[in-house]
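User: Here's a protein and a ligand (zinc ion). What would the complex look like?
Assistant: Let me lay out the input and then the predicted complex.
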Amino acid sequence: MTQPDDQRWMALALSLGRRGLGQTWPNPAVGCVIVKDGRVLSRGWTQAGGRPHAEQVALSQLAPNAANGATAYVTLEPCAHTGQTPPCASALIEAGLARVVVATGDPDARVSGRGLAMLREAGLEVTTGVLEDEARRDQQGFLLRVTEGRPLVTLKLASSFDGRIATAAGESQWITGPQSRLQVQALRANHDAVMVGGRTAREDLPSLTLRGMGARRQPVRIVISAGLNLPTLGPLAEDTSGAPVWLIHGANAPQKARDFWADRGATLIEVAQDPSGLDMTAALRALGQAGLTRVLCEGGGSLAASLLKAQLVDQIVGFTAGVILGSDGLPSLGPLDAPKLSDAPRFALTETRRVGADVMHVWHRADK
Ligand code: AOF
Ligand code: ZN
């Protein structure tokens, strides 16, 4: 049974959990609040690298017996397995909690209902489904990794008012303003990896690193390039920021290029290829297998189009500027081969925000 303040405390637990997004992969970013007599006793969230778990962090701050009779609000079903630490369900039982409120279940085969069962068997009152939709949205990356074997994909599109990303001459700096670019850094911070296509890597020589957000973990830098035709000078080859480089390529990538990047510490991932390009479903499955839960695609237009065509884009974050470039400007996306409107990928608006002189808009896949 839910109680009057359940939503309020769960909202707090969700906001704590979000602090871990981008930092905890392959684990979920969970939040936990322990409440007694209408007051917060302690708070916790999953730490960088995925451990300790949120419940353990919250419990570790309490004096012995302090949690007796208290309620724990947890954004994901407490774990039931012994990993490097004992199960969170046991820790909550031993700490003497009377009630545990959970937003949504954990589909991990080692947990999957067992965490809730352990709590109930020990006589704790268990309430589930509080702010479940919000929790599933926050944890969509982890849920997709476990249930579909691939990470969540966020597509970032920064464009002119009419959806262009450069002038006919290729001038693109800067269409959106400094505040939008700061928001992009915040997006990098809450994703596990940043991904671009080979052409963007060649033309923009991006560093793809996180600057100034106080993050402890740099996102993995992923480049998709069938032939590994990538610049051998520039930040991807030289950067010493400690951000890993993973390169996804096809069977035809020359050995010389593979050796060059392997020598520089890059991880090489080979996936199947057909005349239309690399198999993006296979590429994302490989990334899920490697533990990634949230991937931010920052372009270019042809990579973004192939992700959309393969129905692999879960959310779009758009930044739209008040500059107009016309049809001679470069479009933000390559062809989608969707001649009918009913075939076109469709997204539903979830948020709009003014960011400096631009507008940021967040969209989710309409069928999810
Ligand atoms: C929780 N609270 O904060 C997190 C949980 O490898 P381990 O032992 O750390 O276990 C990882 C699994 O634990 C992960 O797949 C997910 O099922 C759960 N993560 N559980 O109770 C947390 N991060
Ligand atoms: Zn746990």
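Summary: Residues 1 and 127 are 6 Å apart (CA to CA).
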